[in-house]
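How a chain folds remains the central question behind the approach discussed here. The record that follows shows the chain in one-letter code together with its fold in C-alpha coordinate form:
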Amino acid sequence: MGGMILSLALLILCIVLFVILCYRGFGPIPCAILCSIIMALVAEGGFWNALFGTWVQGAMGFCGNMILPFLTGGIFGHFLNVTGSSDRLGIWLVQKVGTRFSVYCIALLTMLLIYAGVMSYVFVVAYVGCGILRATNLPRQVGLAIMSGYGAVCVTCLPGSAFVVNLIPTFTLGTDIYAAPLIGVSCGIVAIIIITIYVEMLIRSYKKSGQGYLPMDNEDGNVRSDDDMPPVWLVFAALVIVILGSLVLIKAVRLDSQYALFSTQIVASVFLVLSCK
Protein backbone atom coordinates (compact mmCIF):
# COMPACT_ATOMS: atom_id res chain seq x y z
CA MET A 1 0.00 0.00 0.00
CA GLY A 2 2.87 2.37 0.84
CA GLY A 3 4.43 1.86 -2.57
CA MET A 4 1.12 2.55 -4.31
CA ILE A 5 0.64 5.78 -2.37
CA LEU A 6 4.19 6.86 -3.20
CA SER A 7 3.66 6.11 -6.90
CA LEU A 8 0.36 8.04 -6.94
CA ALA A 9 1.93 11.02 -5.17
CA LEU A 10 4.87 11.01 -7.57
CA LEU A 11 2.52 10.75 -10.56
CA ILE A 12 0.58 13.82 -9.41
CA LEU A 13 3.86 15.63 -8.78
CA CYS A 14 5.10 14.80 -12.30
CA ILE A 15 1.87 16.03 -13.88
CA VAL A 16 2.10 19.31 -11.97
CA LEU A 17 5.79 19.63 -12.86
CA PHE A 18 5.07 18.98 -16.55
CA VAL A 19 2.38 21.67 -16.65
CA ILE A 20 4.55 24.21 -14.81
CA LEU A 21 7.58 23.60 -17.03
CA CYS A 22 5.49 23.90 -20.21
CA TYR A 23 3.97 27.14 -18.97
CA ARG A 24 7.47 28.41 -18.25
CA GLY A 25 8.34 27.98 -21.91
CA PHE A 26 10.15 24.65 -21.93
CA GLY A 27 9.43 22.22 -24.78
CA PRO A 28 6.87 19.46 -24.06
CA ILE A 29 9.16 16.66 -25.33
CA PRO A 30 12.08 17.28 -22.92
CA CYS A 31 9.55 17.91 -20.14
CA ALA A 32 7.89 14.56 -20.87
CA ILE A 33 11.24 12.78 -20.83
CA LEU A 34 12.20 14.40 -17.50
CA CYS A 35 8.89 13.48 -15.85
CA SER A 36 9.12 9.94 -17.23
CA ILE A 37 12.60 9.57 -15.70
CA ILE A 38 11.23 10.67 -12.33
CA MET A 39 8.32 8.20 -12.56
CA ALA A 40 10.68 5.40 -13.59
CA LEU A 41 12.43 5.72 -10.21
CA VAL A 42 9.47 4.02 -8.49
CA ALA A 43 8.34 1.76 -11.35
CA GLU A 44 7.61 -1.84 -10.42
CA GLY A 45 9.87 -3.36 -13.07
CA GLY A 46 12.84 -1.19 -12.21
CA PHE A 47 14.19 2.08 -13.56
CA TRP A 48 15.85 0.87 -16.77
CA ASN A 49 13.01 -1.46 -17.76
CA ALA A 50 10.42 1.28 -17.20
CA LEU A 51 12.35 3.93 -19.10
CA PHE A 52 13.86 1.96 -22.01
CA GLY A 53 11.16 -0.70 -22.15
CA THR A 54 7.67 0.43 -21.25
CA TRP A 55 8.04 4.15 -21.98
CA VAL A 56 10.02 3.84 -25.22
CA GLN A 57 7.83 1.03 -26.58
CA GLY A 58 4.67 2.99 -25.76
CA ALA A 59 6.00 6.17 -27.39
CA MET A 60 7.21 4.32 -30.49
CA GLY A 61 3.93 2.43 -30.77
CA PHE A 62 1.95 5.66 -30.68
CA CYS A 63 4.23 7.33 -33.23
CA GLY A 64 4.06 4.29 -35.51
CA ASN A 65 0.26 4.17 -35.40
CA MET A 66 -0.25 7.90 -35.88
CA ILE A 67 2.54 8.92 -38.27
CA LEU A 68 0.46 8.63 -41.45
CA PRO A 69 -2.69 10.33 -40.05
CA PHE A 70 -0.52 13.16 -38.71
CA LEU A 71 1.38 13.55 -41.99
CA THR A 72 -1.77 13.57 -44.14
CA GLY A 73 -3.41 15.92 -41.63
CA GLY A 74 -0.48 18.30 -42.02
CA ILE A 75 -0.72 18.05 -45.81
CA PHE A 76 -4.45 18.79 -45.75
CA GLY A 77 -3.90 21.77 -43.44
CA HIS A 78 -1.14 23.05 -45.73
CA PHE A 79 -3.46 22.96 -48.75
CA LEU A 80 -6.17 24.74 -46.76
CA ASN A 81 -3.65 27.52 -46.24
CA VAL A 82 -1.98 27.81 -49.66
CA THR A 83 -5.28 27.67 -51.58
CA GLY A 84 -6.74 30.47 -49.47
CA SER A 85 -9.41 28.17 -48.05
CA SER A 86 -8.63 29.04 -44.43
CA ASP A 87 -8.86 32.77 -45.21
CA ARG A 88 -12.13 32.30 -47.08
CA LEU A 89 -13.70 30.35 -44.21
CA GLY A 90 -12.45 32.87 -41.65
CA ILE A 91 -13.88 35.86 -43.53
CA TRP A 92 -17.18 34.05 -44.18
CA LEU A 93 -17.61 33.14 -40.50
CA VAL A 94 -16.86 36.68 -39.39
CA GLN A 95 -19.45 38.01 -41.86
CA LYS A 96 -22.11 35.52 -40.77
CA VAL A 97 -21.49 35.22 -37.04
CA GLY A 98 -19.77 38.52 -36.35
CA THR A 99 -16.35 39.37 -34.97
CA ARG A 100 -17.57 38.90 -31.40
CA PHE A 101 -18.42 35.19 -31.68
CA SER A 102 -16.61 33.95 -34.78
CA VAL A 103 -13.59 32.76 -32.75
CA TYR A 104 -15.84 30.21 -31.05
CA CYS A 105 -16.28 28.54 -34.43
CA ILE A 106 -12.79 27.19 -33.70
CA ALA A 107 -14.30 25.41 -30.69
CA LEU A 108 -17.16 24.01 -32.79
CA LEU A 109 -14.81 22.73 -35.49
CA THR A 110 -12.53 21.17 -32.87
CA MET A 111 -15.39 19.27 -31.25
CA LEU A 112 -16.83 18.13 -34.59
CA LEU A 113 -13.47 16.73 -35.72
CA ILE A 114 -12.93 14.98 -32.38
CA TYR A 115 -16.35 13.33 -32.51
CA ALA A 116 -15.62 12.26 -36.07
CA GLY A 117 -12.53 10.50 -34.73
CA VAL A 118 -10.08 12.77 -36.55
CA MET A 119 -7.09 12.40 -34.20
CA SER A 120 -5.03 14.79 -36.33
CA TYR A 121 -7.65 17.50 -35.82
CA VAL A 122 -4.99 19.95 -34.60
CA PHE A 123 -3.65 20.44 -38.14
CA VAL A 124 -7.05 21.25 -39.64
CA VAL A 125 -8.11 23.48 -36.75
CA ALA A 126 -4.76 25.32 -36.72
CA TYR A 127 -5.00 26.45 -40.34
CA VAL A 128 -8.72 27.24 -40.28
CA GLY A 129 -8.27 28.97 -36.93
CA CYS A 130 -5.49 31.17 -38.33
CA GLY A 131 -7.89 32.32 -41.03
CA ILE A 132 -10.46 33.28 -38.41
CA LEU A 133 -7.89 34.98 -36.20
CA ARG A 134 -6.47 36.95 -39.14
CA ALA A 135 -9.97 38.16 -40.01
CA THR A 136 -10.68 39.19 -36.40
CA ASN A 137 -7.13 40.47 -35.72
CA LEU A 138 -6.63 38.36 -32.60
CA PRO A 139 -3.37 36.69 -31.50
CA ARG A 140 -2.85 32.99 -32.23
CA GLN A 141 -2.76 32.33 -28.47
CA VAL A 142 -6.53 32.87 -28.39
CA GLY A 143 -7.06 30.12 -30.95
CA LEU A 144 -4.70 27.81 -29.10
CA ALA A 145 -6.57 28.34 -25.83
CA ILE A 146 -9.91 27.62 -27.51
CA MET A 147 -8.68 24.52 -29.34
CA SER A 148 -6.89 23.11 -26.30
CA GLY A 149 -9.65 23.89 -23.82
CA TYR A 150 -12.73 22.81 -25.72
CA GLY A 151 -10.87 19.87 -27.26
CA ALA A 152 -9.92 18.58 -23.81
CA VAL A 153 -13.55 18.83 -22.67
CA CYS A 154 -14.75 16.86 -25.68
CA VAL A 155 -12.07 14.18 -25.26
CA THR A 156 -12.32 13.68 -21.50
CA CYS A 157 -15.86 14.63 -20.45
CA LEU A 158 -18.50 14.30 -23.14
CA PRO A 159 -19.74 10.76 -23.89
CA GLY A 160 -19.12 9.17 -27.28
CA SER A 161 -15.58 10.37 -27.95
CA ALA A 162 -13.48 7.76 -29.77
CA PHE A 163 -10.20 9.06 -28.34
CA VAL A 164 -7.81 7.01 -26.21
CA VAL A 165 -8.77 8.71 -22.93
CA ASN A 166 -12.38 7.59 -23.40
CA LEU A 167 -11.41 4.13 -24.65
CA ILE A 168 -9.23 3.09 -21.71
CA PRO A 169 -12.18 2.51 -19.30
CA THR A 170 -13.86 0.23 -21.84
CA PHE A 171 -10.94 -2.19 -21.50
CA THR A 172 -10.52 -2.00 -17.71
CA LEU A 173 -14.13 -1.52 -16.53
CA GLY A 174 -16.06 -3.26 -19.29
CA THR A 175 -18.12 -0.14 -20.07
CA ASP A 176 -18.66 1.56 -23.43
CA ILE A 177 -17.71 5.02 -24.66
CA TYR A 178 -21.17 6.37 -23.74
CA ALA A 179 -21.00 5.34 -20.05
CA ALA A 180 -21.99 7.80 -17.24
CA PRO A 181 -23.47 10.42 -19.60
CA LEU A 182 -24.99 12.52 -16.81
CA ILE A 183 -21.68 12.91 -14.97
CA GLY A 184 -19.77 13.51 -18.20
CA VAL A 185 -22.16 16.12 -19.57
CA SER A 186 -22.39 17.91 -16.19
CA CYS A 187 -18.60 18.11 -15.87
CA GLY A 188 -18.38 19.17 -19.53
CA ILE A 189 -20.81 22.05 -19.04
CA VAL A 190 -18.92 23.31 -15.97
CA ALA A 191 -15.60 23.04 -17.83
CA ILE A 192 -16.96 24.86 -20.90
CA ILE A 193 -18.21 27.73 -18.72
CA ILE A 194 -14.81 28.06 -17.02
CA ILE A 195 -12.93 27.88 -20.35
CA THR A 196 -15.24 30.46 -21.94
CA ILE A 197 -14.65 32.87 -19.04
CA TYR A 198 -10.89 32.39 -19.45
CA VAL A 199 -11.06 32.96 -23.23
CA GLU A 200 -13.12 36.12 -22.76
CA MET A 201 -10.60 37.44 -20.23
CA LEU A 202 -7.78 36.58 -22.64
CA ILE A 203 -9.43 38.42 -25.54
CA ARG A 204 -10.09 41.52 -23.43
CA SER A 205 -6.51 41.49 -22.18
CA TYR A 206 -5.08 41.36 -25.72
CA LYS A 207 -7.43 44.07 -26.99
CA LYS A 208 -6.61 46.31 -24.04
CA SER A 209 -2.88 45.96 -24.70
CA GLY A 210 -3.39 46.51 -28.44
CA GLN A 211 -2.03 43.12 -29.47
CA GLY A 212 -3.36 41.65 -32.72
CA TYR A 213 -2.59 38.84 -35.11
CA LEU A 214 1.13 38.38 -35.81
CA PRO A 215 1.93 36.54 -39.05
CA MET A 216 4.08 33.44 -38.94
CA ASP A 217 7.36 33.16 -40.83
CA ASN A 218 5.69 31.66 -43.91
CA GLU A 219 2.92 34.26 -44.27
CA ASP A 220 2.72 37.99 -44.75
CA GLY A 221 -0.29 38.48 -42.48
CA ASN A 222 -2.45 40.01 -45.23
CA VAL A 223 -5.86 38.52 -45.94
CA ARG A 224 -6.21 37.51 -49.60
CA SER A 225 -8.48 39.26 -52.06
CA ASP A 226 -11.76 37.63 -53.11
CA ASP A 227 -10.33 36.67 -56.49
CA ASP A 228 -7.49 34.78 -54.81
CA MET A 229 -9.74 32.61 -52.61
CA PRO A 230 -11.99 29.64 -53.48
CA PRO A 231 -15.78 29.79 -52.96
CA VAL A 232 -16.90 28.98 -49.44
CA TRP A 233 -18.91 25.91 -50.52
CA LEU A 234 -15.70 24.33 -51.79
CA VAL A 235 -14.03 24.84 -48.40
CA PHE A 236 -16.98 23.28 -46.60
CA ALA A 237 -16.98 20.39 -49.07
CA ALA A 238 -13.33 19.64 -48.22
CA LEU A 239 -14.10 19.70 -44.49
CA VAL A 240 -17.15 17.49 -44.98
CA ILE A 241 -14.98 14.95 -46.79
CA VAL A 242 -12.78 14.70 -43.70
CA ILE A 243 -15.43 14.97 -40.96
CA LEU A 244 -18.32 13.01 -42.48
CA GLY A 245 -16.05 10.68 -44.43
CA SER A 246 -14.11 9.70 -41.29
CA LEU A 247 -17.35 9.24 -39.35
CA VAL A 248 -18.81 6.91 -41.99
CA LEU A 249 -15.63 4.88 -42.42
CA ILE A 250 -15.09 4.49 -38.67
CA LYS A 251 -18.69 3.98 -37.49
CA ALA A 252 -20.42 2.36 -40.46
CA VAL A 253 -17.65 0.57 -42.37
CA ARG A 254 -15.80 -0.24 -39.09
CA LEU A 255 -12.50 0.78 -40.63
CA ASP A 256 -9.62 1.40 -38.26
CA SER A 257 -9.32 5.08 -37.33
CA GLN A 258 -5.82 5.55 -38.75
CA TYR A 259 -6.81 4.06 -42.12
CA ALA A 260 -9.97 6.17 -42.23
CA LEU A 261 -8.09 9.38 -41.43
CA PHE A 262 -5.36 8.63 -43.93
CA SER A 263 -7.93 8.02 -46.69
CA THR A 264 -10.21 11.01 -46.08
CA GLN A 265 -7.39 13.51 -45.61
CA ILE A 266 -5.70 12.40 -48.82
CA VAL A 267 -8.98 12.62 -50.73
CA ALA A 268 -9.73 16.07 -49.28
CA SER A 269 -6.22 17.30 -50.15
CA VAL A 270 -6.54 16.09 -53.76
CA PHE A 271 -9.99 17.64 -53.95
CA LEU A 272 -8.63 21.03 -52.86
CA VAL A 273 -5.70 20.91 -55.28
CA LEU A 274 -7.85 19.98 -58.27
CA SER A 275 -10.71 22.36 -57.41
CA CYS A 276 -8.52 25.40 -56.75
CA LYS A 277 -6.43 25.22 -59.93
